[in-house]
Amino acid sequence: MSEPLLKIDELCIDYPIALGTVRAVRGVSLEVQGGETLGIVGESGSGKSTLGLAILRLVRAPGRITAGRVLFEGKDLASVPEDQMREVRGKDIAMVFQNPLTSLNPLMRIDRHFLEVLRTHKPELKKPEALKLVREILTDLGIEENRMGAYPHQLSGGMRQRIMIGLGLVLRPKLVICDEPTTALDVIVEAGFIDLLKRLQKEFALTIVVITHNLGLVAELADRIAVMYAGQIVENAPAEAVFHQPLHPYTQGLIACVPNIDVEQETLTTMDGSPPGLVDPPPGCSFAPRCPLAMGRCREQEPPLLEHRPGHWAACWRINNE
Amino acid sequence: MKNLMRYLSMRLLLTIPMLLILLTVVFIVMRVIPGDPVSAMLGDHAPVKFVAEKKHELGLDKPIWEQYIDYLAQLSRFDLGRSMILQEAVTAPILEKLPATIELTLTGLLVALGIGIPLGAWAAKNRRSVGDFTARLYGNIVYCIPVFWMGLILQMIFGVAFDWLPIAGRVGSRVMSSDFEQTGFYLVDTLLKADLKAFTDVAIHLILPALTLGITLSGIFLRLTRANMLDNLKSDFVLAARARGLPEGKVVYGHALGNAFVPVLTMLGLQFAVLLSGAILTETTFSWPGMGRLLLERIYLRDYPTVQGIIVIFALFVSVISLLVDIIHALIDPRVKY
After folding, report:
1. Which entry of A181, B93, B150, B192 is 20 to 30 Å from A131 by CA?
2. In terms of Cα–Cα distance, which of B232, B226, B261 is closest to B123?
3. What is the average pLDDT value for chain B, to the nearest integer?
4. Can you name the CATH fold of A1-81+206-260+269-282?
C-alpha cells in the first residue's frame, strides 16, 4: 500500500482541569489513504471531535497534545511551527463544522468570507479573479450568484452548510474533515448534503474524514470506519465489515441500537450504562463495566488493537479467546 | 432605510413625554428646596416690601400650578424664557458654555474607548496571564475611583509635582480666546484660524480633564469588551476562521472584536448620561467653563428658568446621542431591524 495521506500515530490529548486531567484521546493511531473516506464514530465525549480538531492543531485551551504525531504528507503537524501550520489550515486541510448556523461571522457578507480566505492564502490573486473563483464554487454548490452579497442570517441552514463547504473547498484542499456536518440539519437537507459531498469527492479527488455519532451518515459515505470509545479506537475496519461482522462488543451494541425498518420491533434496543469518566480512567478495557461479555482479565489488562482479519482491527480480549 | 427613518421619528416623538416628565420633576424640586431667586438676590434681611415687589415682577407670587402652566405655554413656543437673576435670555449662557462641555465629553469618550476597547480585547486574548490580571485590576480600580478624586490626583501629579500640564481653564493667559472664537469648540476654532500656537495651548489644557473623565470611564468599557471578547473567542465562527488558516490577529481583532463591539456600542448609548454627569464633576475640578459649572452656579442662585433650560438641553443631548448610537448599530449589524 502507498504512503497514507494522513497518519496519526499514538496521539494523546489531555485537558487539565481542576479535578485532575481529562484524558480525552489516549494513544490513537489511524491511517487515511488518499481518496478514501474515513468515518470516525463514537458517543458524545468519546474524544472524536477533539481528535478532529487535533489534526489542525486547534484543540481548545487548556487542552493540548501530550504525545504522538500527526503526519500529513510526511510532515508532523503536531510539531511544525505555527506559521507553517496556518498555511496547512484551509489550504491543504479544510474543516467543516457541526453548526453551520453559528460558524459564519454574522457581520460579514458571504463574498467577504470567501475573499478573506483567498487573500490570506493566495495574496497574488487579483480581486476579479478571486470573485470569479467564488462564483464558480457557489454555482457548483447550487447557490445562486446573487446570494454572494447576503449576510449569513439571510440564508437557510442548509445553504449556510453549503457555504461552509464552499469556504473549505475554494482552495482545493487535499483533505476535508467534517465534524458532525449534518447534526444541525433536517433529514431532507442531510440527504442533499450527502449527495453533494459524494459528488464533490469525485470532482476534486477529495480525501474525507467524517466525524459523527450518526451511523447512517457513515454507512452512506465511509469506506472505512473507526469506532471510538472513551478516547481510544476499539475497532477499525472496512465499512461493510463494521456493519455486517462487527468484532468488538461495543460496535455490536451500537449496530444493534440502530432501528431497522425491515424488522418488527416492540422496543428499541439500548445499551445500559454510560462511558467512564476520563479523569483517571479505570485499568483494563474501558468498555468492560458495560460489556455483556466481560471477564476477569478485561478489568485488569487493556486489550491491544490487533488485526484479526485482513484490514479489520479490534481491541478485545474475547476475540482472542475464541 | 425607510424603516429606520420611521423608527427615528418615533423615537424623536417619544422624547417629548420624556422631557415633560423630566421638566415637571425639576420644576417641583427647584421650588421645594429652601430659598428662591429673590432671597438669593436681595439677601435674607431685605425689606418685605421689596421682596414682595420683586416676587410679583418675576411672577413668583402666583400659585405654583399657574407658574407651571405658564412655563409649559412658553416652552410650546420653543422659548426657554429669561433668567430670573441676570438680564439675559436663558439660551445665552447655555449657547456660550455648551461647546466647552461637548468638547470635554467627546474627548473624554474618545479616551475611554481608546483605552477600554483595545485593552479589554488584548486582555481577553491573553486570558489569565499577568497582563490580563493587571488590566482587570486597572479596570476595577478606575471604575471605583470617584471622578473628582481622580482629577485631584492627576492635578497633583502632572500639574503640581511635575508641572507639565495646566490644571484649570480652557486656555492659558498668553492666548486670547477672543482671537479665534467662532464655534466655541476651541480645538476646531484654532484649527480654522490655522493658529498652531493657540491650538497647542488649547490641546494642552484639554489633556488632564479629558484624561480624568476618560480614565474613569475606561474601566467599564474595558470590562465589557473583555467579557464580550471571551464569549466571541469561544464562538464557532472564530474557530471556523482559525480552521481556514486566517492569521491570529485577523481572527482576534477582526472577527471577534467586531462582534464584541456591538454590545459595547449599546452600553455607550446607555452610559452617555453617566458620562455627562462625570463631565459636570470634572468641570468643577478643573474650573472648566462649561455647562456643569453653569448649572451648579445657577442652582445656588435659584435661577429657576436657567436650571430648567440646562436640564432640557442635557436631555436633548442624551437623546441625540442615543439616536446616533441606534443608527450606527443598524449600520454595523445587518441583523438589526427597526
Report:
1. A181
2. B226
3. 90
4. Rossmann fold (3.40.50)
